[in-house]
Amino acid sequence: MSRQSLGVRIQKMHGEKTLILANKLKLSDKRLEIKRVGDFVYIPLVRQPSEPELKQLDRATEARVSTYVFQEKTRRPTTLAELLDVKLAPHLIASLPRSADIIGTIAVVEISPELEAYKTIVGEAMLSLNKNVRTVLAKTGPVSGTYRLRKLSVIAGENNTVTFHKEYGCRYYVDLSKAYFSPRLSHEHHRVASLVHEGETVIDMFAGVGPFAILIARMVKNVKVYAVDANPHAIEFLKKNIRLNRVENKVIPIMGDAKEVVNERLYGKADRVIMNLPESARDFICASCDGLTQAGGTVHFYGFMKASESLEGMQAGFDDAVKQCGRKVAKILSSRFVRATAPYEWQFVLDVQVA
Known about the structure:
Number of domains: 3
Oligomer: single chain
Shape: elongated
CATH superfamily of the largest domain: Vaccinia Virus protein VP39
Structural class: alpha/beta
Number of strands: 17
Largest sheet: 7 strands, mixed
Strand content: 25-35%
Mean pLDDT: 93
CATH topology of the largest domain: Rossmann fold
Helix content: 25-40%
Number of helices: 11
CATH architecture of the largest domain: 3-Layer(aba) Sandwich
């Protein structure tokens, strides 16, 4: 759509200089397109320049301020609702996903039952909104099983579940169909890594493709991290990521059940243990205690809790479990919610000093 508006005409050779000056004076109208006709450039203005401003424009560029016809800028939709407003009924617009997990070139979205018949349209819209995304996957089931995998289906773009993800300066290869990875935990990866001290030994009991272990190794100069996982696919990607991030001398990948690995190889070695397996971390509390040195250390315990439960209750439960393992909680360093995982359900973390 075009409309008349105040603007300044200058020769092309002065166009860039005039635009910089108009922006500096807060004169340029960003809602309208700059026009180029013949040897002249026309810059839309939001108001009539004052006499001093006009002199600056004149002195710099021999500008001519008058009324011209400009094209309005086309505003690019920034949400699924804006993009699909004319394609879907209002009740379907209300059911659109409000967010997506962007993992490298893959977007993972949750499609409600109402949108099942329109999932391809939603997927194509996601590709349009996110220029770096090449594949859109829909969640078709919850995270489940020994390897914490989620069923996913391709609804738009390339038929692919392998991607390359960057986080806090680290790079990770991951196959979302074979290994668990959540970009929503990026802050938590960094938070824990920032707590690790020089000279520590860390056991990451459920390491996955390495987001805790590798970031710790990159952030701490003198550290050793034993990265354990029972999923052979995750371990293969972990090994690739260790090489990719050049932390071979700091991160030791170990495939196996965390209880068995601690008992056979890592008993009493660690100053810090990371337990990011919220579905069943309670079953591994004794193993985490066994992994700590005789003097004790820090445990980062992750779990799920419902609205009817409390962080205080989670702390008490962890304290009782530690006592049953022959050790004691010296101090609760921190307890906090990490993220919402379902309606009225949250993931939480306890940072605990165990003696």
